[in-house]
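Notebook, bench 3.
Goal today: get a predicted structure for Glycerol kinase from Haladaptatus litoreus so we can plan the truncation constructs. The sequence was checked against the plasmid map this morning, with no discrepancies at the termini. Length recorded as 512 residues. Pasting the sequence as submitted so the record is complete.
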Amino acid sequence: MTDTYVGAIDQGTTGTRFMLFDHDGRVVASAYEKHEQNYPEPGWVEHDPLEIWENTQNVVTTALSDATVSADQLEAIGITNQRETTLLWDKDSGRPVHNAIVWQDRRTTDRVEQIEDEDKVEMVRSKTGLEPDAYFSATKAEWLLDNADPIKLQRARPQDIRERAEEGEILFGTIDSWLIYNLTGEHITDVTNASRTMLFDIHEMDWDAELCEEFDVPREMLPEVRPSSDDETYGSTDSEGFLGAEVPVAGAFGDQQAALFGQTCFDEGDAKNTYGTGSFFLLNTGEEAVESEHGLLTTVGFQRSGQPVQYALEGSIFVTGAAIEWLVDVGFIDDAAETESMARSVDSTDGVYMVPAFTGLGAPHWNQRARGIVVGMTRGTRKEHIVRATLESIAYQTRDVADAMEADSGIEVESLKVDGGAVKNNFLCQLQADILGADIVRPVVDETTALGSAYAAGLAVGYWDSVDDLRDNWQVDREFEASMASEEADRKHERWVDAVERSLDWAQEGGG
């Protein structure tokens, strides 16, 4: 197998990447292209699906060319994608009926508030594991069905989108489905992406009739739901298409579940945290869908062919890496890499706490009117103290989620696998170990979302024999053990909780 590879399409919010992995899980080639962010109105965010598909073809062919690898050397392709982003397209022409509505889009907030006013929150939560929110796909699909322009057919009168959807002629999908459709011609999604639509019962593992009726989304337009790693595959590329070869598409994941899989968190109690603009902390809870009473989401972690679904608890933290970007914006630092040396230059924050609630607080607080604050400053406070306090805020927010996970599941996180740009900072990793009282484990390959989707596809076609092969591939770059006394960590965290309390409900009507 030395001359064959597995490819991963990593379709994200700002761009698309294609990566080639060899049998040892090493990156052989990578290519990336950004796409436009469209903001037609305040709070609205859209992507052009045709641009995403064109960029996908470009990065695949570029990476293969750069590595001098031909398409027939690809054993399989896996897909990972920005979750919840929603589009509809015409089954006959394959053309979108409207731009995709991005997960960040808030145009359906009023519709979600209607769900709350009608006391339907518990119905949604009990079936989907999700808090009703404009973040998820259901209200986006409803909006598109109600607002997209009628399709003009050459052979007939203009026909209403909803009418055609009920006939199965308009198709719904998240970005994974859109790419699978263009690659193979099949209308398919995987269990992890389905679980983020707010239309899918994660206990019955099927589209839910009551939810489809509530959001007026016809069942006929929904994709077939398949395992994340599918031995039957989702189909193959066309030998006469852009690749010029038949390559199986055999795995798909929402991006955070892909990172869970790429970090080889296959067993109950395994956990990972991805430190990006925000952070996403996932804990594998095994075959039990643990219902959260502490502000977390219950979601599908992954499923392999013929095996039970593995569930996860998820804590979404809105601002972590973005807090470092803020330090650059206000001139405290010129580059994120400076934070480590600046934080080490002082012994402590000197009592300063920074709560980076720039867009409210996510899990486990869920307070949209919280705002960022810096408290505890004196005349002796310097920018180094604030830089250190900003790094500490990342560690404290992660502990907030870990505590909620333990309260919900009874599982204590003793080891946390980490990835994302911020984990290159050794000071932050050691601080995270100290505040959490757990080992922090950083892998050699940090492109864990792409790696996870490659693993899923490769397992499905036998490129890797078992998850044991993947565990063997996974290599530790560095492990950080807690060195702070637990009493000291608790004291610091309790003071953080006091600071969070002061940030809550600050914004009034109009955002002031």
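The longest helix spans residues 383-409. The two ends are 60 Å apart (CA to CA).
Flagging this for group meeting.
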